[in-house]
Amino acid sequence: MTGDELTIPIFKRLRQDGTLYREGDDVSLERVKALKIYHTMLFTRVLDERMLAAQRQGRLSFYMQCTGEEATVIGSAAALEDDDMIMAQYREQGALAWRGFSCDEFMNQMFGNELDYGKGRQMPIHYGSRDLHYMTISSPLATQIPQATGYAYGQKLAGKGRCTITIFGEGAASEGDFHAALNMASVHRVPCIFLCRNNGYAISTPSSEQFAADGIAPRAFGYHMQCIRVDGNDVIAVYEATCAARKITVETNQPVLIEAMTYRLAAHSSSDDPSGYRSKEEEAIWRDKDPILRMRHWLEAQGWWSEEDEKATGDQLRREVLESMKRAEKLAPPPLESLISDVYDTPPPLLQQQLEDLKQHIRKYPHAYPKGASSMGFSAQEIEQSRKAHEQWQPGGEQS
Amino acid sequence: MNMLQAINNALDIAMAANPQVVLFGEDVGVFGGVFRATSHLQDKYGRDRCFNTPLTEQGIIGFANGLAAQGSTPVAEIQFADYIFPAFDQIVNEAAKFRYRSGDLFNVGGLTIRTPYGGGIAGGLYHSQSPEAYFAHTPGLKIVIPRNPHQAKGLLLAAIRDPNPVLFMEPKRLYRASVGEVPEADYELPLGVAEVLSEGSDITLLGWGAQMEIIEKAAAMAEREGIDCEVIDLRSILPWDIETVCKSVLKTGRLVVSHEAPLTGGFASEIAATVQERCFLYLEAPIRRVTGLDTPFPLVLEKEHLPDELKIYEAIKQSLSY
Predict the structure, then answer these.
(1) Which residues of chain B have pLDDT under 70?
(2) Fewest CB within 10 angstroms: A32, A354, B35, B47, which?
(3) What angle do CA A235, A236, A238 make, to 5 degrees?
(4) pLDDT for residue A400
(5) Which DSSP helix (H) or strand (E) runs through B300?
(6) Which helix (H) or strand (E) covers residue B82, if one does?
(7) Confidence class of residue A1 from pLDDT cuts 50, 70 and 90?
(8) DSSP state of B92
(9) Complex ipTM value
(10) A345–B109 CB contact, under 8 Å
């Protein structure tokens, strides 16, 4: 999709070579913030590469990459206050990294170990952080969008000048939740930014089979909302558009829709293979629009970044990610009790009894449940003894 | 007070006591809801705290989930339980799992969903359903059904203040029909606890909501023949009070469970299985279920479809003569 085919124009600032479309313009992104954004983009790219490799090696069950969409995700997060709420879809790890979620924290979630805030209950990439105002990811598509409307309504009642941003793909915008959310947000006037990553594909379905109109942005008119369409690979444009949207939504309690035109350069997930539904040529066109490269060119033109910085930072990030992964892999799984905690504020009697029954069963067959058994205090030796004892038992034969 | 007045009174008390309580749903604002359960509350507490929403059940519950996650105490109304299904995903996949999936980083414990349910009002297919069993299969929710105005007020106040999402199902047939003494004061009744309405030694009769007055009529018919019935209102479908029910069956040896919803997969099945597990050697007769037919809810033949006192009375006699 190119800008020429669209009726709503695309707000752009940066060319791919790092020069501004209008030379001599001011850029509101100052040096420290720009470098932090770029560092976060590099980290996200390294994390994606390493974790996809880890998935291919069988160390991780699943992964989703942000690759190609870093400018949209991180540029928008950088435009917010740290305690504005982010309610993302699933490939927005860059926004969480921007807020300071550490490499270890990412790893703990992905490996579902005892330090995972989600207690090993969700698939990899379902991050969340109360301290960083990042709502825990939910798998069902688009459910976070009306929730963002409700969250923002609460922020309005609290009157502290905070807003919510919800991020979703153009595929999610087909769900009923999206329409319910935008309508309620405009009727009830909530400080919410709806950020659509129009990245071209919902798994294998291209946007041409997702909607018939000119993208997602025009839907804002039907809901009496302001909107802006932005070049999603242009970090300066995304940052400035989101700054403007935040100002409107916080000052007037009106929701704003941002459509970021970008491209999901990677597969949908580690279980997907895009070669089955799109061409290498098409991907190559977008690889040439790499948002990280575009920002790097701009940073270098400012004299804020160099080849040496790039190499040193890349090496350091790759080391950091690998070491962190090794640490997370070695940690214990969550305790058996976490099976029944957090279903309710306190486990009801029936659940407590179910846990007791399970423990009794595990005590009998610890070798069959090594994670649960070790969390109940069984040593590796005892588990091995149980295995040997039961190996001698054959169905229909004598039990030794 | 009738049941609507008791519910209105409970909402009024909850809003006065906690400025975070926010009421919304279709027609809930100035009109006070199609049944008038929220009458005058917008006048009293303003449009920010009591308001109409657009016609979007999934939107209402999605919005309520977000508002609850933010720290408010939303009381969302779904105008009829028959129309709760567009919101099924937001209830079952979102509200019920919010705390668990985030490892307690976030929760929507402040959420209460109120919805009128049940038949007996000539409502036909889409104004008569009792969908409690669909939600009973979902850990993380609480499901509460009151039988009269006094219960409605105390249970609703407890539901709003409970730190878990609660589905509060109101028997709409009783909204105006059920009248009784209701204290003016603020009081709560416990969730997850059944109530023994009358003690007896021959058979246990168990139900909830609008079915309770039917069960009491059947018990009165049986008493005239010298059958001594123990009558229990389950009050909470999830979590449910296994102890009280089993204690009673261990004493009487017989159980009849009655609900309006269809038989197959109805909550009576869950109760029967659990009681069988725990009371097997004490049972004098098979557990009987008296329920609606396995059909959509009809219009004209409503009386025939519903489990009434005569059907329950017959089940009691069959159990006694087994």
Answers:
(1) none
(2) A32
(3) 65
(4) 42
(5) none
(6) none
(7) very low
(8) I
(9) 0.93
(10) yes
Runs of H (alpha helix) within B50-122: 57-70, 88-89, 98-101
For A196, the token pair is 């659509």
Cβ-in-10-Å burial (0-12, 13-18, 19+) of A397 comes to exposed
- Pick B94's closest partner by Cβ from A118, A138, A351: A138
DSSP character for B11? H
Q: CA nearest B214: which of B236, B229, B225, B199?
A: B229
C-alpha to C-alpha distance for B261 and B238, rounded to whole angstroms: 16
What gap in Å lies between CA A201 and CA A169, rounded to an integer? 9
A177 contact residues in B (CB cutoff 8 A): 58-59, 62, 90
Tokens describing residue B202: 């021959």
pLDDT(A275) > 90: yes
Beta-carbon contacts below 8 Å between A and B: 150
Between vectors from CA A55 to CA A52 and to CA A59, what angle results, nearest 5°?
135
List pLDDT tens digits, range B233-261. 999 999 999 999 999 999 999 999 999 99
Interface residue A159 vs chain B (CB under 8 A): no
DSSP E strand boundaries for chain B: 21-25, 50-52, 73-77, 112-117, 142-144, 166-171, 195-198, 203-207, 229-233, 236-238, 255-262, 288-292
Average pLDDT of chain B to the nearest whole number: 98
Name the nearest CA neighbour of A18 among A292, A313, A243, A229.
Answer: A292
A117 reaches B (C-beta below 8 A): yes
User: Which of B62, B104, B164 lies closest to A146 in CB terms?
Assistant: B62
* Measured distance CA(B183)–CA(B174) in Å, rounded: 19
* CA pair distance B258, A71, nearest whole angstrom: 60
DSSP states of A260-276: EE----S-SSTT--GGG
* CA closest to B25 among chain A residues: A184
Cα pseudo-dihedral A195, A198, A201, A203, rounded to 10: -10
| Among candidate residues A124, A127, A230, A142, the one with its CA nearest the CA of residue A179 | A142
Residue A2 has pLDDT above 60, yes or no: no
Report whether A169 contacts B88 (CB < 8 A): no
Read off the pLDDT of each residue in A291-301 and give the average, rounded to a whole number. Answer: 98
- The total of other beta-carbon atoms located within 10 Å of residue B291's CB is 23
Answer yes or no: are the C-beta atoms of B222 and B288 closer than 8 Å: no
Express each pLDDT in B15-61 by its tens digit. 999 999 999 999 999 999 999 999 999 999 999 999 999 999 999 99
Closest-CA distance of chain A to residue B314, Å:
33
Amino acid sitting at position B162:
D
